[in-house]
Amino acid sequence: MPDRTETESRKLLGRLRDLMAEDAAGQARLDKITHLTADSMGTEVCSIYLFRDENTLELCATEGLNKSAVHQTRMKLGEGLVGRVARSGQIVNAADAPSERGFRYMPETGEELFSSFLGVPIQRLGEKLGVLVVQTKAKREFTSDEVYALEVVAMVLAEMAELGAFVGDGAALKARHTQPALFRGGSAQEGTAEGHVWLHEPRVVVTNFATDDPARERGRLHAAVETLRVGVDELLSEAQDAEQMQVLEAYRMFASSKGWMRRMEEDIARGLSAEAAVEKEQSSARARMSQVADAYLRDRLHDLDDLSNRLLRILTGQGAQTGAQMPDDPILIARNIGPGELLEYGRKLKGIVLEEGSVGSHAAIVARALAIPLVIHAERITNEALNGDHIMVDGDQGLVHLRPDESVVSAFRDKMAMMANAQERYASIRNTPCVTQCGTRITLTMNAGLMADLPSLPSSGAEGVGLFRTELQFLVRNQMPRRTELAALYKRVLDAAQGRRVVFRTLDIGSDKVLPYMKPNDEPNPALGWRAIRVGLDKPGVLRMQLQALLRAAEGRPLSIMFPFIAQFDEFREARDEMHKTLAREERLGHRLPAKLEVGAMLETPSLAFAPDEFFREVEFLSIGGNDLKQFFFAADRENERVRRRYDTLNVSFLTFLENVVERCRVSNTPLSFCGEDAGRPVEALCFAAIGLHALSMRPASIGPVKHLLMRSNLAEVKSVIDEARAAGAQSIRPAVMEYLRGRAP
Ligand code: PEP
Ligand code: MG
């Protein structure tokens, strides 16, 4: 037997639904809602305040306050009780409002007559839209049932706002998802792109929020949860690793959570449809999410959010992109995405914008390999963007213009045209060897890691692959690749290189690169932990398998292999011994051996620069992994946004250190290259070349700009600028070099 409050709130919802079905302009609808709410709740006042801009709320409709104040009364976020509700996202329930902290009297509204105040936030999935208020003359606190009823009205308001129900006469809400919006995120892959939005997970819009038949809705909810539970169980039985299992277990926990179900059932009993009940729960989880500092709890709330999305899809039938057509120039928008999913989209995408993500994430690595501009940390963009919206992504600055206006469009297109001009200039020197004005030949090669990189080899003008990061093939899979698979892949890489040199780096896992199918290691400081060659030497099975795959892939062609993260001579010797043992085994088995085999090392820790002379004589080539070297040289984590840009690569100490390495290699006649990200930055590349680093390996897109600058430069002049700045006590030689470059003829 439904209790009285359930019947009351069902009645209120029914009246709201009828009202929404009427054909009325936006303002008239808002006015009717205030009237109906005040009437149903027995209050003298009901008012709707909506955000005009990020910081300002405006009285948009009222029953009971002076009508002349509508669209006149405004308040700042945090100002008065309404502003407090808006800022905190929390309910304010005050029997004697004027004596409340922060109360602000608005004379034009005539609210001095009223004592009690109940304000609830109007928000949709954590996005704040405004505040809904009821007031009475009598001093009284509102009951929890009244609070609930007002929350439901607020939710319906938010939902209807999403559907554009209050748009039409300009006075009420701005149409949702029609205004230009700018998102400031972080740059994870440079480049610019213009296109149309493609949502990785389309948003679900609830159109049916009220019900007269709670029993039916309960049945729908139970059936949907059951479907969900079966789905999660299936995923769980296929789960490959502990972390995946953990997430799915958490899903299962929520899917069977009594509290979650009970709250949704209560919502249904009070007149909400099954989907509205799910969304109400989801909204409150989102609101909690923004306030929880504990990372573990936040992750669990995220899980709940994901689960709610799945449930909403089941209930509304709004599945993954049903009926939607991917635009020709898709810009992918997602909260986050895994490397595998990103690879499935492949080069189709013009750009990617994520709400989460990190520069070092695997998705970022894949985006970089595919040379797709990527902006991360674009907060709330999945709420704002709709499939098909016009969008411009500036991966250089980390900016995203959604539904840009004319002036932004033309400025952005100018920038793209300038970049295209530069690309044309680079194309004209693509096949010219890189020789500086002073006659020094510089070898420019590219970094790669996926088959998707290889088409860039001829188009970028790279002379070969200076660093092939083999771990990416391991990272984008769900299980350890087999030797035959790897051999086939490496063979395809060598085939695509058409005789150009490819330097394969053996597996560099650990630190931020964690294989999904290997037991995770709980290390206090993974960047300084069990990683790269340390893993390879301690557990040589995978290293041997990889070396064997490489030898077979060569099919008699020359082969270059380097070991990552060599910190002392012995590590190189041991790794090389593994190589020789594998080679001998291959010979015994009658396999063809490479015509020539070069075995090198990466210099990524300062210690190796001080290794015995013998090391420099024995190693067949050295490549400086500047990304890691720099983080250890300055003790500044390369993944930590706070410190990673703190020390300039052109810092005199770092350059002097590099010069010492150049000198040691000169004495021992050891070929030396530099393959960290800095090699792809023209000014850095110029300084490296000037101090004697004559082989640089970089992202394919950087080869053009680096070559263009090097070919116009005189390294001897740059070297004197560096020496003078150093002698003058400069901390970084960048200002001096920049001044020199500015002073030169264009
Ligand atoms: C480096 O450390 O500079 C390097 C090239 O290796 P990775 O970025 O893959 O660690
Ligand atoms: Mg490295």
What does this structure look like?
This protein is an alpha/beta fold. The protein folds into 4 domains: 3-173, Beta-Lactamase, CATH 3.30.450; 181-202 and 327-418, Glucose Oxidase, domain 1; 214-321, PtsI, HPr-binding domain (Enzyme I, Chain A, domain 2, Orthogonal Bundle); 439-698, TIM Barrel (Alpha-Beta Barrel). It contains 26 helices and 22 strands. The chain is elongated and about 95 Å long. The termini are far apart. The model has no long low-confidence stretch (mean pLDDT 87). Magnesium ion binds next to α21.
List the SSEs and their pairings.
Layout: H1 4-21, H2 26-41, E1 45-53, E2 56-63, E3 74-76, H3 80-88, E4 92-94, E5 116-124, E6 127-136, H4 144-162, E7 181-184, E8 186-189, E9 192-199, H5 214-238, H6 242-255, H7 258-269, H8 274-289, H9 295-316, E10 330-334, H10 339-345, E11 351-354, H11 362-369, E12 374-376, H12 381-384, E13 390-394, E14 399-402, H13 406-428, E15 443-448, H14 456-460, E16 464-469, H15 471-475, H16 483-497, E17 501-505, H17 533-538, H18 540-554, E18 559-563, H19 569-588, E19 597-603, H20 613-618, E20 622-624, H21 626-633, H22 652-668, E21 672-674, H23 682-690, E22 695-698, H24 700-711, H25 715-727, H26 734-743
Parallel strand pairs: 9-10, 10-11, 11-12, 15-16, 15-22, 16-17, 17-18, 18-19, 19-20, 20-21
Antiparallel strand pairs: 1-2, 1-6, 2-3, 4-5, 5-6, 7-14, 8-12, 9-13, 13-14
Helix pairs in contact: 1-2, 1-4, 5-6, 5-9, 6-9, 7-8, 8-9, 10-11, 13-24, 16-18, 18-19, 23-24, 23-25
The structure holds phosphoenolpyruvate and magnesium ion.
Phosphoenolpyruvate (PEP) is lined by residues 467, 469, 508, 604, 625-628, 675-676.
